[in-house]
Write a structure and sequence with these properties.
By secondary structure, this protein is of the alpha+beta class. Helix 1 packs across helix 6.
Length: about 325
């Protein structure tokens, strides 16, 4: 069962299994479990939502690292970034919330996320014992079938709403913008790029630059393949950074920082799977990362991941 709501909309949708056409697919960061929901996308009323039951056990016994371990690893990542002369490397961690005997209401948590994050793609699903929930602010790409217009965004750099942008955040976002621009220039025409601006997301904000272009439908999947993973969730060069992420993080990101493909009659959407959690009967495993640069402050990076974890963690509703 899957429920989702598109950004800046109010209607909730599910997928009715009428055929084998892939309607919504969740792809992992690298290899691994993929969740596909086939059929027809149909609206569903709030009163008709059925509460989902998270899987009963954590067979892989997922773990989170302590603050001290995180800070020590970030220092190693900073050294790696400096030694390899990288603009950034994205390092993520897990945070576990124990339910302490309480029963999670997945649907109520989903509705809370819809209320608090109107501009996000919000979802919850359970499939074959695997359950996830999320409210991602990042669009990987959107393709309008009739106009052949492709839109995407460079979204990176994070601060609390009341803080001023520094050169560190600007330097973190710029490589993402350059990366997207280079890919579009190889595949698209009529490319337009917005000014960079602040995008609020709950208690935090990001730097954002929007892109719009005309592309051939035949190039869409190749563009997405080249975009993912963007420097906003990985780094540049892609292979070196993906290998480094695997070494530094030590655990699979699973669906976190992968992408979600949603196909409607008029559009095909691709969302980066951020601000998300894997759900179990007795706990939630939250995923959050940040772009580490040569100028990163480990304590500040820790606070950033705490704020990002709160996006879902503080909106879990228990019955």
């Amino acid at each position: 069962m899957l429920y989702f709501r598109l950004p800046d909309q109010t209607e909730i949708f599910t997928v009715k299994a009428v055929d084998n056409t892939a309607a919504v697919t969740f792809y992992p960061f690298t290899d691994g479990y993929t969740a596909m929901f086939s059929g027809e996308i149909v609206p569903v009323a709030v009163d008709d939502l059925i509460n989902l039951q998270p899987e009963t056990s954590d067979d892989n016994r997922q773990t989170s690292i302590s603050k001290e371990q995180y800070l020590a690893t970030v220092r190693k990542v900073i050294d790696f970034v400096r030694n390899e002369h990288l603009p950034k490397l994205v390092f993520a961690r897990r945070k576990i919330i124990d339910f302490e005997g309480r029963e999670l209401s997945v649907v109520d948590s989903f509705l809370q996320l819809c209320n608090d994050y109107p501009g996000a793609f919000v979802y919850c699903f359970e499939q074959k014992g695997v359950s996830w929930i999320g409210a991602t602010p990042e669009l990987l790409g959107s393709f309008h079938k009739s106009t052949r217009t492709f839109t995407t965004m460079s979204l990176a750099g994070t601060l609390p709403q009341d803080e001023e942008w520094t050169q560190k955040e600007i330097d973190e976002q710029q490589p993402v913008t350059d990366y997207i621009r280079n890919i579009l220039e190889a595949h698209a025409t009529e490319i337009s790029v917005s000014e960079t601006y602040s995008q609020p997301s709950g208690s935090i904000k990001h730097l954002r630059t929007d892109f719009s272009a005309k592309i051939s439908p035949d190039d869409l999947e190749e563009i997405i393949k080249e975009l993912h993973p963007t420097p906003a969730v990985c780094g540049i060069p892609k292979k070196l950074c993906k290998d480094a992420i695997s070494e530094f993080e030590g655990q699979s990101r699973e669906l976190y920082a992968g992408y979600i493909r949603v196909e409607t009659r008029e559009n095909i959407y691709f969302f980066v799977n951020l601000r998300c959690a894997r759900l179990f009967r007795d706990k939630a495993v939250l995923f959050a990362g940040g772009g580490i640069t040569a100028a990163s402050d480990p304590e500040k990076e820790w606070r950033e991941t705490e704020l990002k974890s709160d996006a879902v963690g503080r909106r879990l509703i228990f019955s």
